[in-house]
Structure formats: structure tokens, C-alpha cells
Amino acid sequence: MRGHKTIAYVDGANLHNAIRQYDWSFDYARFRVWLREKYGADKAYLFLGLIPRNGHIYSRLQEAGFILEFKEVTYGGGGIVEGNCDADMIVRVMRDTYEHPNDQTVIITSDGDFTSLVKFLIEKKRIRCIVSPSPSNKCSILLKRTGVPISYLFDQRGILSKRKSPR
């Protein structure tokens, strides 16, 4: 791997939903450090819907070292936010694959919609691993079938949880 850079691509909605589902006090700053230390991720792109009232959250994510990639959202029935970033993330990975031919890729998702991308990265020998925000039993079987190594963020809960401040 010497001479190679590693870039992490985070499916923000998938990560957010896993954190919420498992009532996890997740520390994004620790997560960014973990990606750098565990996988050598020089860059970490975080794909998410742009909701103006969340500006303070976006600032903290940038301070933690994430490069934010936004998608404009719409609001469906009942005010539900809609803004799937999967296609944006896939395009970014594909572009980087061609523009930076020696870089390795870490994909952070549990979503089987990324299976075709993972297979492409396997062909190009450009994928290092998948990091699933969900436990093993909730990660897409389609991703598992690719044979790419998968690690589970859920197994890192002790490391990636926010620390309670002393009183």
C-alpha cells in the first residue's frame, strides 16, 4: 500500500439512520480519527442532504475533518426530508477512481445499492474495505456477497461513542 492514498466515502444517511436506530451517542470527530488511524484515510467525504437549519452541525463535521458533499433536499408528505445521496456518492467515487489511479477506497455504508460500485472497484483493484454502520445481520447480503472485507462500526461502539464530560 506504500505510495497509495486512501479515501473514505461516507453514506451519511445510512450512518445517521444506524446511529439513530441503535440509540448511539456517536462521536464524528473520533470516527474521523479512527478512519485515518485504522485505514490511513487521507480524505473522508461525507454525503448528506442540505438542511439549512443544521448549519452548526455541518460546521462541527468540517472541523472534525470531513469534506461535506451536499445534496439539495425536498420535503415529502408530512414534512419528511427526502434527499438520497447515493448517486452523488457513486459519481464522486467513479470520478476519483479515474482522476487518482493509485488511491484506495473505503466505503462506509450498509446499503446494497452500492454493490455495483463495489464490484467496479474490485475490478480496478481499488477497494480496501466496506465499513458497515449497522451490525452484521443488518448489512446488505449483496455487499457481503462481493467478498470485500467488511468491518462493522457497531463493533467499535466503545471507541466511537461520545465521552461523558466529568462533573
Summary keywords:
167 residues, alpha/beta, two-stranded antiparallel sheet, 8 strands
Kindly describe this structure.
It is built from seven helices and eight strands; from the N terminus they run βααβαβββαβαβαβα. It is α/β, with parallel strands linked by helices and 167 residues long. The chain has one domain (6-157): 3-Layer(aba) Sandwich (Rossmann fold). The strands form two sheets. A six-stranded parallel β-sheet has the order 3-2-1-6-7-8, with helices on both faces. A two-stranded antiparallel sheet has the order 4-5. Strand 7, helix 6 and strand 8 (150-152) form a beta-alpha-beta unit. The longest helix has 14 residues, at 86-99. The mean pLDDT is 90.
Gyration radius (Cα, Å) is 16 Å
Give the uncertain stretches in residue-range form.
Answer: none
Strand tally is: 8
CATH class categorisation: Alpha Beta
- In sequence order, what are the helices and strands, one letter per element? EHHEHEEEHEHEHEH
Order of strands across the main sheet: 3-2-1-6-7-8
Shape: globular
Can you tell me the CATH architecture? 3-Layer(aba) Sandwich
| Share of β-strand residues | 15-25%
Mean pLDDT: 90
What is the end-to-end distance? 44 Å
Biggest sheet statistics: 6 strands, parallel
Q: What is the CATH topology descriptor?
A: Rossmann fold
Q: Please, how many helices?
A: 7
Structural class: alpha/beta
Tell me the count of domains.
Answer: 1
CATH superfamily (homologous) name: 5'-nuclease
Percent range of helical residues: 25-40%
